[in-house]
TrEMBL record:
Annotated Clp ATPase C-terminal domain residues: 98-182
GO MF annotation terms: ATP binding; ATP hydrolysis activity
UniProt entry keywords in alphabetical sequence: ATP-binding, Chaperone, Nucleotide-binding
Cellular component GO terms, alphabetical: cytoplasm
Taxonomic lineage from the root: Eukaryota, Metazoa, Ecdysozoa, Nematoda, Chromadorea
Species annotation: Steinernema glaseri
Taxonomic superkingdom: Eukaryota
Name of this chain's protein: ClpB_D2-small domain-containing protein
GO biological processes: cellular response to heat
Length: 183
């Protein structure tokens, strides 16, 4: 994780310190605090701590318009990589964090895979709305996105279900409904 204390960027001119000087200015080749940190750790999460203390121009530069961001990314890619590689890039996609609707969709995809495996044993599976909501909640992490979802399904649905199937509690043709405890 890269942590940047935004209270250090309270003045208007501090934009250059954060993202680097514009072309033609002294220090253009050096890059700014943020650009250098991202260059050194390209897959890091960037935490803009106390962003509310930064000068509005600094904030505006960070959120700027997406076309300018894409153009800046392509300029950086073009200056770093050979043209043969750059010509293979079809599109630059700006990362958008997953929302609840996307997590719910991913959950349904994962559950449909489980249902397919259960159908081979002539079993069907349904989740109560409350159980589905709980699974969506525990399967999402703001840092890791939907990565914990598969483990949550395994821990809360697959493992207990496997134990019940192995114990003979569900036979072919059974319809299984997963609910929250106390539901």
């Amino acid at each position: 994780m890269v942590r940047i204390d935004m209270s250090e960027f309270m003045e208007k001119h501090s934009v250059a310190r954060l993202i680097g000087a514009p072309p033609g200015y002294v220090g253009y080749e050096e890059g700014g605090y943020l650009t250098e940190a991202v260059r050194r750790k390209p897959y890091a999460v960037v935490l803009l701590d106390e962003v509310e203390k930064a000068h509005p121009d600094v904030f505006n530069e960070l959120v700027g318009d997406r076309e300018a961001q894409r153009a800046a990314v392509m300029d950086a890619v073009g200056s770093h990589f050979r043209p043969e590689f750059v010509n293979r890039i079809d599109e630059v996609v700006v990362f958008e964090p997953l929302g609840r609707d996307q997590i719910a969709g991913i959950t349904q995809i994962q559950l449909s895979r489980l249902r397919s495996r259960l159908a081979e044993r002539e079993l069907s599976l349904e989740l109560s709305p409350e159980a589905l909501d709980k699974l969506i909640a525990v399967g999402y992490d703001p840092v890791y996105g939907a990565r914990p979802l598969k483990r949550a399904i395994q821990r809360w649905i697959e493992n207990p279900l496997a134990q019940l199937i192995l114990s003979g509690q569900f036979m072919p043709g059974s319809s299984i409904t997963a609910k929250l405890e106390g539901e």
